[in-house]
């Protein structure tokens, strides 16, 4: 970095424009950290004096946008980054030049100051809410070691080196190194849902050297030091060492790290030493400074402000040219006004500034503050919506920023996490198949077991029947093995509730395994005790102990888990559970009578969206086991490729299996998720699921939540190299291109049939041009142009009637797909698919996928929704970020723009609040442009009659009051209360949402139309007034009409005109709308004479003296205000009638249905579609069924087997 960059960087930090709380220096990037001297920190154990002299961060956090010191600089920087505010600041400054301004010097600076102050009040109000949340978190208390006892200390006062005691159900106040716990071998369970959205518990284990520190006295004697890596944002890595006074050094790894934001679960207490605090914790390192986001409407407004500025400059130059020509050609200026022609050219440039001041309000000063006020109120309506209030957790919807509300009505892509966002991550044991007989927890009437005419049993039995069959049925032996397998083949730890010893709490790192153990408990097999080498199960009033000889762990390659068990009678059995594909291929050729019936049941379970496992067993002789055990032991002690050696050893014994049956677990979706996804799809929104889960699980959930449907063809991209990935994507995209070309050719042919003669010739010419373009843009050529960047972007609004496809891609392949020469190929293919599922993706990949769409799909608005810290990156990368809230300290919700408690609330948030906000803001912006241009163009027409002198026709303070008083309520009424369609219709007809996606209410075309209308209206009212009120017109008292009388008459007509325009624009009449329309007129007619009477007394507006009485007593005035405003609106009425009668839009039809309560009798075809796609559905089920495993793949079996639940746990006090 050069010296200039360093200076400006330091200046930006000093002024608060760049926030130091979110440092992006190299050491904060995360990843592997080498503990070199300059890249480590040393923390003394139980020595606060040594730690205080080091520059460690405090534990106080602040997520506010501003601080007391940085507010002024940062706020002003943001405000004057807006073109409109910068323009008015310039106008206000040049108004101070003596003799230059034709209006009052404070006419711009004073209103601008009011606008800036109003914006400051809004920012302070929003930031204060964040400050209150921070204060609550910082004031939370934790027990900290002081001497030889633990005392309460606020989180903000915790420092690096403190030893803290965290109890069950509490969040960790900082990043800690685990020393000891109430569990054996310093084990503890943590929930990281605030970090990664996963509610399944994770195991952490302290080092053996500190596991004995079980009371305050012993831990207070600990001495030595910790050498730790520097603060970084990598949630999954950590390197450090702990050195004791005796000189022994022990390495530390992520297994000992307890992160701020995680919660201690199913563990009475832990002791931990603080290593990172405050904004140096890994959680806060991931909470990067919130990016400044602008909406599509705001970006359009900025462009159109530039257009109006160019128009203003053109008008100013035109008028200045008029003044120049008049000075050079007319004797009046030289003979009467004594203007020297030698100064004419110099005066030309000064006149440009004069006319810029005169016409400056072509750009509405009040537009920005009016938009911010309306957005703030719309956000408060979102917060107050009871339909989005989640009563279970007392959680309302919260718009954390009001700046993006209209963006909610234009979303094209939704990027969603799965766990905790679409699903609850709560598993329930729903069904099972044992010995070819299907059982279910709840059996609907139409699925109850019956025997058909052929004597074949079909349907489901309930679990009560299963309990009876376990005693007397011919399959009782199979049922016993099935239940025994579920109760012993797992890694669950049982704990008894101290208040109720009969209540057993199962600690499971996998929610699937927890559900299976709880499910088999309902069948009479209760898992009660785990010891290092055995487990105990209660059944039929007796306790049976099973010796666990070996466990072959699950991993994504094996897709199964097995346990070698010595039964109570001394026999040895192999129990195994896993995906059907791997179990069926290992079944014995004989002795498996239940395969066909079990496969039918598996298909039924998959059709219900359930996660399935197949269960099997094998009897093993003692000699075979002893031989295999030696092979397994050698594999377990292998230094290199240990996991592969263990997998090979497991293959030797996992063969010739006997099938017992299958289980079906429901990965419970959040309420309303399938219907919400279906509605959003009908609204034209594409949903991409970005999840860290395995592919099978993600696909299964995709079908459950209706993201994937039976008619879709699934493209699975699992490639191992860059080239293979590119070739796969190019092959599929080439197929799509041919289909698109065929569809477009068919559409062109149908269009040509409508034309004949010259029209037919035109279409043939278009076709020939299309053929030439096709030759230039063939598949290979297009790929070359995409890679080289010649193709700017992808058309998001292109509607194609193609066969529905879904793309599924895993994280490894996604790495290749995101490389520069492949990413646009991947993007185009993905955009042509109805749904996209990315599996096993990292937080960085989530953000990269969102950014890819955001930057390369023309005009696309992206929304990201998630619930964990691993979703923060994509939430901040998207145009709109939505966090799932409902739990204290949820990082995603705190980093999001909008927080909701359930995914289903997205439906109303987007379709209703978003649709209304976009329509309202569109009308507000267009109307503000219209009313300002209409008024201030009168000055332009007047310039032709006053010799381009720069004379104003309106009194200065009346001009200043135009936006802040007399035309203030009309745009507010449009922006807050107008509803082009009610909420019921917006939900019933989600296709209306596409109006916002295509920017149909506010675009360049509508803007030009409204501006042209303003030119027409201003010209018409000026021309009518010129005809009715000329300089020669005599008043009743003998005086002639002056410019102030004409000006105030024109001003009155304009107020009536723009108010009537608001009246014909509004769709919904509320009490405030009526007040805005009638109240504005009444306010002007009453306040104007009062002001004109009082102001001249203090020499404020002397030109208005006597005007109201003269104006109100003139019949011409009353005639003009009744007739002139109506004349320009005749065109508007005719155009509106024509559009609704002969060129109706979709919402016009819905408005008619709403107004006259017309029912929709369209036939529903759902039943027909189900029949048509039944064959495809069955084929899909045979291809892929989800299986229920979600725990950490390796390393847990040894930890679990060291656990002994019979040992009494220490109190730690």
Automatic annotation (TrEMBL):
UniProt cross-references to CDD domains, sorted A to Z: P-type_ATPase_APLT_Dnf-like
Pfam (any one): PhoLip_ATPase_C
GO MF assignments: ATP binding; ATP hydrolysis activity; ATPase-coupled intramembrane lipid transporter activity; magnesium ion binding
Record-linked InterPro entries: ATPase_P-typ_cyto_dom_N (IPR023299), ATPase_P-typ_P_site (IPR018303), ATPase_P-typ_TM_dom_sf (IPR023298), ATPase_P-typ_transduc_dom_A_sf (IPR008250), ATPase_P-type_domA (IPR059000), HAD-like_sf (IPR036412), HAD_sf (IPR023214), P-type_ATPase_IV (IPR006539)
PROSITE patterns referenced in this protein's UniProt entry, alphabetically: ATPASE_E1_E2
Domain annotation P-type ATPase A: ranges: 139-202
UniProt-listed GO biological process terms: endocytic recycling; phospholipid translocation; post-Golgi vesicle-mediated transport
Catalytic activity, as annotated: ATP + H2O + phospholipidSide 1 = ADP + phosphate + phospholipidSide 2; a 1,2-diacyl-sn-glycero-3-phosphoethanolamine(out) + ATP + H2O = a 1,2-diacyl-sn-glycero-3-phosphoethanolamine(in) + ADP + phosphate + H(+)
One GO CC term, this protein: plasma membrane
Domain P-type ATPase N-terminal: 43-108
Record's keyword terms, sorted: ATP-binding, Magnesium, Membrane, Metal-binding, Nucleotide-binding, Translocase, Transmembrane, Transmembrane helix
Subcellular compartments: Endomembrane system; Membrane
Amino-acid positions noted as binding ATP in the UniProt annotation, renumbered to this chain: 417-419, 513, 554, 577, 611, 691-693, 840, 846, 870-871
UniProt family annotation: Belongs to the cation transport ATPase (P-type) (TC 3.A.3) family. Type IV subfamily.
Name of protein: Phospholipid-transporting ATPase
